[in-house]
């Protein structure tokens, strides 16, 4: 089967940084509580910047990093699209000057980036495209209940993007294997209850269009699903935990990632984390963490990576990746 290699990476953040101290001025919380329970010290909340704006900036950086100005396909993972209809990806493709390429959104909440990687890998391996721009972009600040201290402190806005290209099988620096899963029975763990078609046919349904989460249950489920999915994809790849140089988990919570590493019997020093600076950026979190790691010199060509994510749906997914020789710029801070 055709191989798939990563050839570029980029990211973008809105330039409005919100510290834990800022939030303590808005609600009954404290820097100590937020850092202790989550590891998060700050996040970026856009004022007017849309998900599409962030996706365009991240996409441009990824194309520059890959030294190319065209791709055959754009796959955008988001739960906070610019409009309920249409998808955000076609506008992003047009604004990037990519012409009439296939472009669509993937909705798998915080697992969205791994799902989008899987979709793009399928297109490339199946010969439907030779190159793809895969973007995870979110503006959770637009759906958060800013009076709900148990959710508002966790999430931030941002976008991360990678360029994938078809390659000869066995080419170094490839996206190896992927594991995906879901359990719709648990959809109420992380959700926006109202605003969709369900409430129209279910009188009395919760019509709130604000984000809601059952934090403790999410914590437990996330650890279990990410660990199981990681084990599955490692098996499929013929790798063991000892083969891994780095684990890049969805940046949900420092304690969740620590527990996943423990379950895999991996040293916690292999965890790549940037959630202290950007919070949980949902579908953008894995590419933004990868970008931070490459621009700070942590990642080297040939390193073996495990990516793993958990999100609303519930959904989960993991991938194995051999890191390429790639040059990238830090995330673009865009005026908001
Ligand atoms: N500041 C101060 N106190 C807070 C608070 C905040 N921001 N949020 C909740 N609390 C309080 C609660 O009201 C509760 O008080 P009580 O004991 O008086 O009732 C207490 O802290 C403990 O709340 P609890 O929800 O049990 O805390 P927790 O240890 O489970 O931590 C989360 C809460 C949300 C940080 C944790 O459950 C978590 O990280 N879950 C996973 C969330 C996640 O990663 N979601 C995205 C996945 S894709």
UniProtKB/TrEMBL annotation:
Q: Where is the Beta-ketoacyl-[acyl-carrier-protein] synthase III C-terminal domain?
A: 234-323
Its annotated compartments are:
Cytoplasm
Q: Which gene encodes it?
A: fabH
Q: Which residue range or ranges hold the Beta-ketoacyl-[acyl-carrier-protein] synthase III N-terminal domain? A: 104-184
Origin organism is Amycolatopsis australiensis
**Start and end residues of each stretch annotated as ACP-binding:** 251-255
A single GO molecular function term of this UniProt record: beta-ketoacyl-acyl-carrier-protein synthase III activity
Listed A to Z, the keywords are: Acyltransferase, Cytoplasm, Fatty acid biosynthesis, Fatty acid metabolism, Lipid biosynthesis, Lipid metabolism, Multifunctional enzyme, Transferase
Question: What's its EC?
Answer: 2.3.1.180
GO terms for CC? Answer: cytoplasm
Q: Which domain of life is it from?
A: Bacteria
The UniProt entry's sequence similarity note says: Belongs to the thiolase-like superfamily. FabH family.
Question: Per its UniProt record, what NCBIfam families does this chain match?
Answer: fabH, PRK09352.1
Extract one GO BP annotation from the record: fatty acid biosynthetic process
Q: Does the keyword Membrane apply?
A: no
Q: What is the protein's quaternary organization?
A: Homodimer.
Q: Which reaction does it catalyse?
A: malonyl-[ACP] + acetyl-CoA + H(+) = 3-oxobutanoyl-[ACP] + CO2 + CoA
Recorded hits in Gene3D superfamilies, A to Z, give: 3.40.47.10
* InterPro entries with a match to the protein in the record: ACP_syn_III_C, ACP_syn_III_N, FabH, Thiolase-like
Q: SUPFAM superfamilies this protein is in?
A: Thiolase-like (SSF53901)
Entry annotation: catalytic residues: 110, 250, 280
- Free-text note regarding domains: The last Arg residue of the ACP-binding site is essential for the weak association between ACP/AcpP and FabH.
**Which top-level enzyme class is recorded in the Swiss-Prot or TrEMBL entry?**
transferase
**What is this protein's function per UniProt?**
Catalyzes the condensation reaction of fatty acid synthesis by the addition to an acyl acceptor of two carbons from malonyl-ACP. Catalyzes the first condensation reaction which initiates fatty acid synthesis and may therefore play a role in governing the total rate of fatty acid production. Possesses both acetoacetyl-ACP synthase and acetyl transacylase activities. Its substrate specificity determines the biosynthesis of branched-chain and/or straight-chain of fatty acids.
Protein name, please?
Beta-ketoacyl-[acyl-carrier-protein] synthase III
What pathway does the UniProt record associate with this protein? Lipid metabolism; fatty acid biosynthesis
Record's Pfam families?
ACP_syn_III, ACP_syn_III_C
